[in-house]
Amino acid sequence: MDAAKPIVRAKVPFLTLSLELPPKPLFADDEDKGEVGIPQVALVSLLQRYNGSTVVEWQGQAKKYQLRKLPQFIICHIKRFTKTELSAEKNPTVVNYAIHNVPFGNLLPKDALVHGPHGNPTYNLIANICHDGQPALPAGNTASSELGQSTAATLAASTAATYTSDETTSANSQYLVYLRHAANDKWYMLRDLHVEPVMPQMIFLSDSYVQIWQRNDK
Fold it and tell me: For the chain, how many helices (H) and strands (E)?
């Protein structure tokens, strides 16, 4: 990065907010047991990427992102997967969050809060797309072939066989969707063609991948 380069400001619309997870730990937390603990991070910490002061490095450039206006709905994409020619890895970091009154408005500058029609807006979670398990290994990988042979009989009788559309799905992984029904404020889990009611606490048991938030306008 060249500090002598001029600062360029640009106003661009956005469709989603991409959130970078901290890297996976390389060493075991407990040397005696050889166990690597799963890291945790708060959603509000990940959102600081867009507070206008956090420096983000991208392709040799230093960038800052400042939200100026918040829409009625916000889509957050938690970047869990890293794909290369040799492997597809998933970051298992646990993201902690509340499902009500998350202060997205704290990301706005003071002048936007004062003149904005919604003051300091908060948001409620209405949908949470999660990924369970590990991504599939690349084609031709020995471990992938052995897994396919050993689970062929199981896949024939399991709905998990339908989750093979991309590199993030495999025989032992799947996507789940948790939706909040606005009329009764109850949560439902969607898995393939199965829909069932769930307790709100169940939402936190899977690895969040995409979240949809709705602004509190009441």
Answer: 4, 13
